[in-house]
Amino acid sequence: MTKIGLLRCEKNAEACPLTNCFKSIIVGDQAFTECAPVELVGVFTLPKERERVFALAKILKAKGAEAIYIVTCAFAHKSKEGWKLGQGFEEGRDELYAELATGVGLPVIKGSAHLPAGYTPQRFEP
Questions:
Q1: What gap in Å lies between CA 108 and CA 121, rounded to an integer?
Q2: Do 125 and 103 touch, CB atoms closer than 8 A?
Q3: What is the share, in percent, of the chain residues with pLDDT greater than 70?
Q4: DSSP state at residue 118
């Protein structure tokens, strides 16, 4: 069983209760197929301050997380045709995710539920 932490978007925190992310974790699909079965150790909302992102990820690691997942709405958006890359709530943070993986010592995976067609979750290694 893989223990994971989930980082969600601050801009979408009051609109999305993570229902489909939780469903995907439970059934082991979408971004969680390779690590199923999954145990969720915690969820935090991505803050604006970079330092806080590292602090929150370290808390998830202390709670047993073996990987950190970034929710899909951070980098993709819903359209009439389904989920598409771009226009997400946390665009342009790949450098942060790479630094986070190295700084915390855990893989950071960009994607959760609602993966856009043809998208393979991007993995940032420590």
A1: 10
A2: no
A3: 100
A4: T
